[in-house]
Amino acid sequence: MLTATLAKQFIKKISSNTKYDINIMNCKGYIIASTDVSRIGEYHEIAHEIIKKKKEIAVVDDDSFIGTCSGVNILLTDKEEVVGVLGIRGNPKEVLPFAGILKITIESMIELENLKDEKMHNVELSQRIFNLLFDTKLSNSNLKVHLEQLNYDSNIIRIPCLIEISSQVKSNKYLLMELQHQKYINYQDISLQYKNNSILILKALTKTEAANYKEECLQWFSAILNNTTISSSIHCAVFGLPQKRPSLYKESTYQISWLLQNNEIKSKILFFSDHVDQYFKNFIDFKELYTIFDLYKSNIKIRNFSNYIHTFEVYLSSYGNLNETSRLLNLHRNTVLSHLNKLNELFHIDIIKNYSDAIFLNYFIHYYKLTNQNNIKE
Q1: Any residues with CB less than 8 A from the CB of 284 and at least 6 apart, and which?
Q2: Residue pair 242/216 in contact by the 8 Å Cβ criterion
């Protein structure tokens, strides 16, 4: 967009470096900036004429037109849209090459100004969406109305994703802009700066049903990681559960934010669904755990208990696969079985054959760690 302010800035910069009189006219043919300030506001007939006819250039050899002197008038465009006219007074043969250079210069200034406006618009839009989702208590129906007004489809399924940036990156704003520039964020993805060190993207599902969301998320984020410039700025990403109700975006974001802060697994990609058990343990009242498990804890007298429960935790995370547990711990399969059977003997349970016993021990370990302040004593 060609504004009077931008036109005057251009004239101010160029006037001290040229001997020619220069005018800039708007789409209606009126001078909005000039090296001769007294001419601002005057009607320029030739400018209006070439705008109406969309002529690229008009050379004038006399003063027969209203508000016009001999010289060159050249059309100014912004993304193929006519925005005004640049006029240079003087011998047409002499000023024509100069006019071409000035045209390129001012159109480049317009383009840069548009980018600034677009970035400012994106910042304002992001802030507005953030306020809607996190700083208000709107009902789901009201949230849907607001999102529709912002051209977001409020009925599609979105996956909340928190991307934590590396400590070397100064601001999450620049990473977000780069993701947008590289087309990793589509028009239905809601993307926001979230706190100081992360970006929130409510990723719109496009190809799969909600049940298969992990596959689409992995494909999308793997493509980002393949971009070496961007991947070096990313510490990790945490994906939440699929949501269709905008009113649930907030809580789902809090869930993955909790996981980002409390997870000990060093991985580039995490899914909240794999850590639901860990999340719910966070809300169990300690008194409840004490009532159920304290007697068992007081009866533990064996050495190397931490080794046994670590074996069990890996066994549980391996979905009860002894061979995989053995591989991950670099222990012989019989040693893994020995550790598990030691726990069976100690608690009079069967964690290999009885799923309920495995769950019981899982929660006991949670209590055990809490009472030892996450530093298990043997």
Answers
A1: 363, 366
A2: no
Q: Output the six-digit token pair for 108.
A: 């480049």
Boundaries of domain holding 36: 4-107
Q: List the structure tokens of 105.
A: 């210069």
What is the residue whose two structure tokens read 């043969």?
Answer: 93
Report, in this order, helix, strand and coil percent for the chain, each rounded to 5: 55, 15, 30
Q: Are residues 168 and 268 in the same domain?
A: yes
User: How far is residue 284's CA from residue 296's CA, in Å, rounded to a whole number?
Assistant: 18
Query: Are 291 and 197 within one domain?
Result: no
3-class secondary-structure state, position 113: helix
Q: Considering all CA atoms of the chain, what is the largest pairwise distance in Å, rounded to the nearest integer? A: 108
- For 93-152, write each residue's pLDDT tens digit: 888 888 888 999 988 888 887 776 665 555 566 677 878 788 777 888 888 888 888 788
234 neighbors 166 (Cβ within 8 angstroms): yes
CATH of residue 51: 3.30.450.150
Q: Report helix, strand or coil for 32.
A: strand
CA distance 147 to 139: 12
Residues 6 or more apart whose Cβ sits within 8 Å of residue 319: none
- 266 and 291 fall within a common domain: no
The number of folded domains in the chain is: 3
Helical H runs in the chain? 4-15, 45-53, 92-134, 140-149, 172-181, 213-225, 228-231, 249-262, 276-281, 286-298, 305-317, 322-329, 333-347, 355-371
